[in-house]
Amino acid sequence: MSNKLLSVRDLTIHYITDDGVVKAVNGVSFDIDKGETLGLVGETGAGKTTTALGLMSLVPDPPGKVVGGEILFNGKNMLKASKHELRAFRGKEMSMIFQDPMTALNPILTVGEQIAEVIQLHDKLSKAEAYKKAAEMLRLVGIPDERMTEYPHQFSGGMKQRVVIAIALACNPQFLIADEPTTALDVTIQAQVLDLMAGLRKKFGTAMLMITHDLGVVTEICDKVAIMYAGQIVESGDLESIYERTCHPYTKGLFGSLPSLSKKIHRLSPIPGLMPDPSNLPTGCPFHPRCPNAMEACKSRAPVNTEIEPGHFVRCLLYESKTGEGEK
């Protein structure tokens, strides 16, 4: 029996605006097994959140449109699912922890009502049973159930994020998307939330897509890493491959811009330039205007995904020439 839970193939998402087509996600492919966590890493504007919204079929239409690809969940292509099937799927099979806990909660409903609402919708329990389970979920994320009747404004940022996690996990989904869940929190609360998520993942065996720009967070919680740039995954593999045998010039640039406790360096090496405008991407490799290793061919030929060792893929012409032929 296959252990594969989610298989994304050539996912392409565009936003069609009056000013032109914004190519937010361009042929993204990855797999996530049951109980596994993939870290999706990249700068702001790389297409990480749009990818997540695509998985949940929540890309705002208009202007957004999934123009190609497949999203196979337990073998079923979710892009062909009906609205009724998607409503039953979201929250029950796949849930999402949104980026900002301050805006993810309804200010006029108590936290207990918001958790119970999801449970009633998917588990078909009575109101009393749903409230009982909601209280259990609050306790699970470290909040006393006496606070069930309080409103979001009565909670701190870290507590709100715990409530959002409780809502996402209320129906014990097989797959969880966490979109930069610690961005709005201070460092000590970030550590608490990450520990909580790691513990809950172990308890429920939930597979997860962790979206972040923090490479430190990835080492804490992920099994595999995918580095995203200009709507494409440019390097992917397990933690050891990416952290110990970094290959793509962009990935090297990300690591070079981080301070290190083990190496004595006087100056960090930031990546020059800015992320390209997704409505006007460069020809060839989208990273070539910022790449220290750019060749003439990079300006005209888009690299394909090349497997340089088992499970370690790089989208770069340098490695195509070393290994022969890449895989699409």
Keywords:
328 residues, Rossmann fold, 32% helix, four-stranded antiparallel beta sheet, 12 strands, eight-stranded mixed beta sheet, alpha/beta, globular
Tell me what the structure shows.
The protein has eleven helices and twelve strands. It starts with a strand and ends in a 5-residue tail after the last helix. Helices cover 32% and strands 25% of the residues. The strands form two sheets. Strands 6-7-8-3-9-10-12-11 form an eight-stranded mixed sheet, with helices on both faces. Strands 2-1-4-5 form a four-stranded antiparallel sheet, covered by helices on one side. With 328 residues, the chain is α/β, with parallel strands linked by helices. Helix 4 packs across helix 5 (127-140), helix 5 (127-140) crosses helix 6 and helix 6 (157-169) packs parallel to helix 7. It has helices at 48-55, 83-89, 101-104, 111-123, 127-140, 157-169, 187-204, 215-221, 239-244, 249-256, 317-323, and strands at 4-17, 20-33, 37-41, 64-73, 76-77, 94-97, 175-179, 207-212, 224-229, 232-238, 305-309, 312-315. The protein has a single domain, classed as Rossmann fold. The protein is globular and about 65 Å long.
